[in-house]
Amino acid sequence: MSDETAFADFVRQRGAALYRYGYLLTGSHHDADDLVQEALIRLRGKWQRLHTDDPIGYVRTTMARLHVSFWRRRKNRERPAASLPEVAVDDPGLASVDAEATQADALWAALATLPPRQRAVLVLRFYEQLTDAEIAETLHLTRGTIRGHASRGLEKLRSSHAVHHLAGVLS
Amino acid sequence: MTDLDLPDALRRRAAQAVAPPDNLAGIVEGRYRGRRRRRIGASVLATVGALAALTTAMAHLGGGRPDPAATPSPSPAVAQIMPPGGGPFPSAAELWPEIDITLPAQTPHDSAVDVIKSIDATHVLVSTLEPPGFYSYDVVRRTFQQLPFEHLDGNGLRVTPNYIYHAVRRPKPVLQVYRLPVHGGTVEQVAADLPYDRFARWYATDDAVYGSGPTGDGSWTYDIATGRTTAVAGVTVSGDPGQSVWRAERADQPRAGTGRGFNPPPTLALHNIVTGERRDVAQPPGVTEMECSPQLCVYLDPLSPKAPKRYYVQRLDGSGRTALPFANGLGIRAFPIGPLGLFLVGGHLYDPATGRAGSVGADRLACGMGYDGVRIEWLPDQNSPCREHVIWLIDRIR
């Protein structure tokens, strides 16, 4: 199998997962698209050496570092809204569902206020399920710094007015 | 309000991500080939590790090395940066035995200990998490002495020749700065209300606190004696957080046309937030891995992706390009040590000022590695050759 074919297979198998990960890192479909493509281009350049090793780890690390170092400079730029605010509907039967959805939206909004590193740490810890040591290596930081980012990030999520409780979280 | 499961909430949100385009592999392949043809890195991730933070302290404490922040010329002689032969090289731990920090089994409160940085030739700064605390660890006597800071924030420490500074954000958005003499004494508050938007990233000398904010509106000096805050002339960057008087400035270039795509490579420069000096950094085309000290850059040759790794060292202006005889992994890291900086490159710790280089060790190349600018750390892992917790405190090299 040629390098090009093997790489294309990898992209087909992993592309969707990488887009999901990129979306959580950036909060934007457009930025996720850019981020994934940039990381894959870099992987392509190292494919011969990495394809038998850990290409998904390389892409994940590249995306996290790019997000922190590159995307953070664009945070103040205007970007189109990812979704329009919905109009509230008065339906008691939907109250519990609405509460959960509202909380999830509030969490997403609070996540958007975090600095890129804090956001990356939370995504790597709670979505990618990496250990603090793995996150430290991914982001070139110490475990203590990772714990600090995680603690401050979680505290910000908790202290946001809409997100009062975070279950399943070990800070 | 019900509890919200964060991992589950993230998974649900992730499911809303758009699907990749059907021809994603083709798009990436085309862009990769186009980029190779142009040999232009569309988005250079040239991490400029701005160095020299602790060098003032090192020069005073160790008396051995000059302060690169005070070095007038950024152009060392080519002969200085020539590495030794082609190896094999001795172990870095044998070449610089002082960097290997072995902690005793008995730690304060039996807590896990983080090694932070050197205080002087025989003491290193460490912290504990439970309960939180800062300690001076005597590497000879292997004893801990607790430092009497009341408010603790593990990310807010700086060491100068005579003081350990500690900053806390309390109350937000104000930075309070305290300091303690390195050889003992009492903690004094030197600043009570530094605005966080100017001092979010900070650096200290014996006489002043220097800061820059998250919004990139320049650098600021807080004079401890007078209590006055003034702007540092000529410095307009906020730069990287960390331990250095040097801040990396990355300026985006305008994107050509209106179509989607990536910005062209940013220009790179180093700013000294104390003196205002600016040093431009020349980027070799297509480079994706590069680390710089205030005098030199080390980078991975971008033109041979299928060949063995080839690293080069050169001056900031791009002159004096010299191949390094290292080819292993671990990428490149830079450390704020010595007149030219130290580099971890190709599995070797390399001092351009002396030409000395030591191997990290083949086993460790397969182990998870942590790095923070003054130290390297390997954690024990049953799935790798690493069975012991190893900490190298690179700023102990004098």
UniProtKB/TrEMBL annotation, chain A:
<dbReference type="InterPro" id="IPR036388">
    <property type="entry name" value="WH-like_DNA-bd_sf"/>
</dbReference>
<protein>
    <submittedName>
        <fullName>DNA-directed RNA polymerase sigma-70 factor</fullName>
    </submittedName>
</protein>
<keyword id="KW-0731">Sigma factor</keyword>
<keyword id="KW-0240">DNA-directed RNA polymerase</keyword>
<dbReference type="InterPro" id="IPR007630">
    <property type="entry name" value="RNA_pol_sigma70_r4"/>
</dbReference>
<dbReference type="InterPro" id="IPR013325">
    <property type="entry name" value="RNA_pol_sigma_r2"/>
</dbReference>
<dbReference type="GO" id="GO:0000428">
    <property type="term" value="C:DNA-directed RNA polymerase complex"/>
</dbReference>
<dbReference type="InterPro" id="IPR039425">
    <property type="entry name" value="RNA_pol_sigma-70-like"/>
</dbReference>
<feature type="domain" description="RNA polymerase sigma-70 region 4">
    <location>
        <begin position="110"/>
        <end position="158"/>
    </location>
</feature>
<dbReference type="Pfam" id="PF04545">
    <property type="entry name" value="Sigma70_r4"/>
</dbReference>
<comment type="similarity">
    <text>Belongs to the sigma-70 factor family. ECF subfamily.</text>
</comment>
<dbReference type="InterPro" id="IPR007627">
    <property type="entry name" value="RNA_pol_sigma70_r2"/>
</dbReference>
<dbReference type="Pfam" id="PF04542">
    <property type="entry name" value="Sigma70_r2"/>
</dbReference>
<keyword id="KW-0238">DNA-binding</keyword>
<dbReference type="InterPro" id="IPR014325">
    <property type="entry name" value="RNA_pol_sigma-E_actinobac"/>
</dbReference>
<dbReference type="GO" id="GO:0006352">
    <property type="term" value="P:DNA-templated transcription initiation"/>
</dbReference>
<keyword id="KW-0805">Transcription regulation</keyword>
<feature type="domain" description="RNA polymerase sigma-70 region 2">
    <location>
        <begin position="11"/>
        <end position="75"/>
    </location>
</feature>
<dbReference type="GO" id="GO:0016987">
    <property type="term" value="F:sigma factor activity"/>
</dbReference>
<dbReference type="GO" id="GO:0003677">
    <property type="term" value="F:DNA binding"/>
</dbReference>
<keyword id="KW-0804">Transcription</keyword>
<dbReference type="InterPro" id="IPR014284">
    <property type="entry name" value="RNA_pol_sigma-70_dom"/>
</dbReference>
From TrEMBL, chain B:
<protein>
    <submittedName>
        <fullName>Uncharacterized protein</fullName>
    </submittedName>
</protein>
<keyword id="KW-1133">Transmembrane helix</keyword>
<keyword id="KW-0472">Membrane</keyword>
<feature type="transmembrane region" description="Helical">
    <location>
        <begin position="40"/>
        <end position="61"/>
    </location>
</feature>
<keyword id="KW-0812">Transmembrane</keyword>
